[in-house]
Amino acid sequence: MSDRSFYQWLMTQRKPEFADEIQQFANNAFMDQSFPKHTRDYQTISNYLEERVTYLPTMSIFDDAYEQFKDIEHL
What we know:
Elements: H1 6-11, H2 21-31, H3 42-52, H4 59-73
């Protein structure tokens, strides 16, 4: 088990060209100065994305990414 935050994990998913939805989410989060970078908490990140972000077309992309994060980090 790692102590990486969701943001730290998400940054490993970045891809500059031909990105899938999660990779594009990572690319956009990288440019987002206010993204909650030090938390693993689903609700904190979800609230931020729902209330402050326009670059995520659907929350299901976050849900899928968070599930991958949980599987890798054994949460």
